[in-house]
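Example 9 (inverse folding). The structure is encoded as follows.
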């Protein structure tokens, strides 16, 4: 990832207008997944538009995602995380562990299923061992999450004194990773009211949060660089009122 891109993204994040008048809080661990369709000449990414009635980012186009839940660490999988991904996920964290790294990737997979109805993994004759109701959809569809399909693209922490703060890890997977679709998840009364496949290079023209646009550029740079797991992963965080971009 070149220095010019990094400087441009830091400037964009720092200049973004934001209300930092709220009581401060600790960011919650979270994960997001960006599905890429590379079957055509132009790579496309899947975005969802949030319901206008939501208090948090109403009407914005976002990637499916959410906070880590306790049962995520217990979900069975086939295929493990690439060692380079696991190492980067455990960098600059309070309690690094193999379980923590895989739980973050599983959070992204679960949240994608909950918000889009798309289940990533491999379909088999027998259901996976699913802990609790939160993973029941995978057991019913006999879809086993495959962490070997996952790439780690970026990490970003919400600035201090915002109404909600997350320490978000942004993952990606190819659209061919979708093993099953649950119908009726997206609609006028759902968290996401529509899904859109947009060319990565053009998706930033949609109405989206600044961080989503920044990560889209990081994703495009990653695709153009070959998607190797050994590529550095940018980590965005604010310190003394200025955003920083550290490479993991």
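The amino acid assigned to each position is listed next.
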């Amino acid at each position: 990832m070149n220095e010019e891109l990094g400087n441009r993204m830091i400037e964009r994040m720092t200049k973004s207008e934001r209300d930092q008048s709220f009581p401060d809080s600790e960011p919650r661990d979270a994960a997001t997944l960006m599905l890429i369709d590379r079957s055509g000449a132009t790579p496309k990414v899947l975005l969802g538009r949030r319901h206008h009635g939501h208090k948090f980012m109403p009407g914005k186009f976002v990637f499916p995602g959410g906070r880590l839940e306790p049962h995520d660490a217990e979900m069975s999988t086939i295929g493990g995380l690439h060692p380079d991904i696991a190492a980067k996920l455990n960098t600059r964290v309070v309690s690094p562990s193999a379980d923590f790294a895989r739980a973050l990737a599983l959070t992204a997979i679960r949240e994608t299923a909950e918000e889009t109805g798309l289940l990533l993994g491999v379909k088999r004759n027998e259901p996976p061992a699913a802990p609790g109701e939160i993973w029941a959809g995978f057991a019913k569809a006999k879809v086993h999450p495959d962490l070997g399909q996952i790439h780690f693209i970026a990490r970003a922490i919400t600035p201090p004194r915002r109404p909600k703060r997350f320490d978000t890890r942004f993952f990606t997977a190819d659209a061919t990773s979708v093993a099953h679709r649950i119908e009726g998840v997206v609609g006028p009364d759902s968290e996401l009211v529509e899904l859109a496949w947009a060319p990565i290079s053009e998706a930033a023209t949609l109405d989206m949060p600044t961080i989503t646009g920044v990560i889209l550029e990081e994703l495009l740079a990653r695709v153009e660089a070959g998607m190797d797991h050994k590529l550095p992963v940018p980590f965005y965080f604010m310190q003394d009122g200025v955003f920083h971009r550290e490479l993991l």
